């Protein structure tokens, strides 16, 4: 049950982070605001970091969880209140993913 929750929340948080990044890039392009473009580029990089954490959380739960948490907090720093849409699922998924015990081979 925990793995399903980690997958759903991680997928939701990563997709929302990438969506917010693309919106910021589009707004910066339309208004020729370099600050909005910088925010979009930075947040899409950290959304990619969270996506990498989401992928490797199955193999290395601690590392994947930390990558998702770091990506979530940096997205929150970029978008402030709007970033909570992506931050909350990423941080919760990262914490739950870190508590999952890895299967012994």
How would you explain this protein's 3D organization?
It is a single chain. By secondary structure, this protein is an all-alpha fold. The protein has one domain. The protein is built from four helices and no strands. The protein starts with a helix and ends in a 6-residue tail after the last helix.
β-sheet strand percentage: under 5%
| Biggest sheet overview | none
Tell me the helix content.
over 70%
Count of separate structural domains? 1
Mean pLDDT equals: 85
- Give the CA-based shape: elongated
Oligomer kind: single chain
Radius of gyration: 14 Å
Which segments are poorly predicted (pLDDT under 50) over 5 or more consecutive residues? none
According to DSSP, the number of beta strands is 0
| N-to-C span | 21 Å
The total of helices stands at 4
Order of helices and strands: HHHH
What structural category arises from helix and sheet content?
A: mainly alpha
Task: Give structural attributes.
105 residues; mainly alpha
Outline of the structure:
The chain is an all-alpha fold.
Could you outline the blueprint of secondary structure elements for this entry?
Elements: H1 2-31, H2 34-56, H3 61-79, H4 84-99
Helix pairs in contact: 1-2, 1-3, 1-4, 2-3, 3-4
């Amino acid at each position: 049950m925990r793995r399903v929750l980690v997958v759903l929340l991680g997928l939701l948080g990563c997709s929302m982070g990438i969506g917010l990044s693309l919106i910021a890039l589009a707004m910066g392009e339309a208004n020729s605001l370099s600050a909005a473009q910088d925010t979009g580029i930075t947040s899409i990089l950290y959304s990619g970091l969270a996506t990498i954490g989401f992928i490797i959380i199955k193999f290395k739960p601690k590392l994947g969880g930390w990558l998702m948490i770091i990506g979530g907090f940096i997205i929150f720093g970029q978008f402030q209140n709007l970033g909570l849409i992506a931050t909350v699922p990423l941080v919760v998924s990262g914490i739950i993913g870190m508590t999952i015990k890895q299967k012994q081979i």
